[in-house]
Amino acid sequence: MEEQILDQLYADMEVLEKENDMLPPVKRIKEASVPLLQWYRRHARTLPWRESPTPYHVWVSEIMLQQTRVEAVKAYYERFLAELSDIQALADVKDERLMKLWEGLGYYNRARNLKRAAEEAVLTYGGKLPDSYEELLKLPGIGSYTAGAVASIAYGIPVPAVDGNVLRVISRLLASTEDILKPSLKKKMEELLTEAMPKENAGDFNQALMEIGALVCIPNGQPHCGECPLRGLCLSNRYQKTDSIPVKTPKKSRRVQERTVLAVACGSEVLIHKRPDKGLLAGLYELPNTEGHLEKGQVYAYLGISEEDILVMERLPEAKHIFSHVEWRMTGYYIKLKEEWGKLRDSRDNLPGELVDKADAESRYALPGAFKAYVGYLFH
DNA sequence: AAGACGGGGAT
DNA sequence: ATCCCAGTCTT
């Protein structure tokens, strides 16, 4: 008798599991949205940009959050908003000040595009951000993710915001083995979510997916499936595939470049150089540097000086800086020029950069971290 | 489709 | 040392 009951129970469970397995993706996401939103209401972090989610606030935060961790963004966001509290202020900010506010955050084109978009908002949209996904998408620096995030969070428009978190969470939920680095997969995901997402709570739904990706369905270590509200619906959890999903093709290794960095002082001044406004670290300042590991003689030639112009010259230790796509292996020289030499206009003009007051160099100009190992010799 | 574009924290 | 982050733009 008892055995029969158990058999029936197992049979029922099997049917239920099979039904669960057969659930089409759209329905699976729709079912997941209920416990997901419930979970989000309890676990949403308190974040500065959530206090008053105006379009401007959401926009600035989303740009800063591109490829950047929440913890890193917080302080930058507060300082940025304190100084540039509305779109007009952003449109009016001096480029140099803008870069200083962004210094250390990386991907500096984000800041330039932010200002460009603000100028366009002032010019074309009456000083406000446009209120449709399509119009947002036209602004510089706003791609499908950011347009979706601003549209849904600030305006309540039911469009998805697919970032790395969402790609990972949904891929696991559906046990999809497609490569999430492929643009085509992201597009499919956006179409799927457009159909499956709740039309009423779009902003919360999008944020909930990202939040659960950041806190539970995490990228590197083991996901915390035990505390996941979606574990009953998650096919990767059921088939123990969270180790292999999401699938990502390995990326190419970065190239290595040798460079020589020069810490040049002359009296109370130091030598800095403005980088071109395209390419790596565009528009930021740097210590003069050039490709290759230079000997002393090559350094004189590079600086356009001769040996008798120099008061002190010493070799500095090697240093390394890693960007995402290139690695700099640097060597350096500290050079103190004779003060009287620095007073000659001709000699100053031939330098690869400009001599500026030491105190100014630190407070006014954005000097990226790549030169950290060598700026110390100049300023301290 | 592939590469450029930063910096830092976790493993 | 490697991964990867609330991605976008250019080639």
UniProtKB/TrEMBL annotation:
Belongs to the Nth/MutY family. Keywords: 4Fe-4S, DNA damage, DNA repair, Glycosidase, Hydrolase, Iron, Iron-sulfur, Metal-binding. Adenine glycosylase active on G-A mispairs. MutY also corrects error-prone DNA synthesis past GO lesions which are due to the oxidatively damaged form of guanine: 7,8-dihydro-8-oxoguanine (8-oxo-dGTP). Binds 1 [4Fe-4S] cluster. The gene is mutY. Its cofactor is [4Fe-4S] cluster. InterPro entries: A/G_AdeGlyc_MutY, DNA_glycosylase, Endonuclease-III-like_CS2, HhH-GPD_domain, HhH_base_excis_C, HhH_motif, MIG/MutY, MutY_C. It comes from Lientehia hominis. This is Adenine DNA glycosylase.
